Amino acid sequence: MIRKSVTGLVVFAVPVVILTSLLASDIVYVLSGPGYEGAYLPAKIIMPLIFIIGYEQILVIQILMPSKQDKSILLNSIIGAIVGISLNLILVHRFGATGSAIVWVMSEITVLCAAQYAVSKTLSINFPIKELVKHIILYIPSILLILLISSSNNNHLYKLLLGGIVVLINTVIVIKH
Fold this sequence. Notes:
- The chain has helices at residues 2-22, 24-32, 40-46, 49-64, 70-122, 129-138, 140-152, 156-176.
- By secondary structure, the protein is mainly alpha-helical.
């Protein structure tokens, strides 16, 4: 069941992260309008959290909690909090919203690594790097097409719709193989 959860996450998260990362500025513009250009980079930075938090939750909720590894869960949270507070003190003052986005991603990566370590100590479940890289490679056509679409058109809604269609078609092809 864990492997099915991880596969489902990868199949869902990779195309969503690719689409939202490449078109983050268009998403922010469509949702907020002009004047929010400062949110473009932070939005791009946080998009991988779709996968990171999803995988982290599989480790914590489906493995550590049923295994009664409450101490590991608490330790993960403490480590994440320490990293978050420390990086906040260093980055947010200097980089503002971008620094805050970096802090959030780094804190979640730290919690994910701590949870993966705790799980790997007792079970033979490792980070799905091969599956993740495979799926990213399978989406190179989508990445290239979205970059082409983005460079050739300034209509934000058009780019989102066309990018969504490209990723959807690529996803159907990936799932069928």
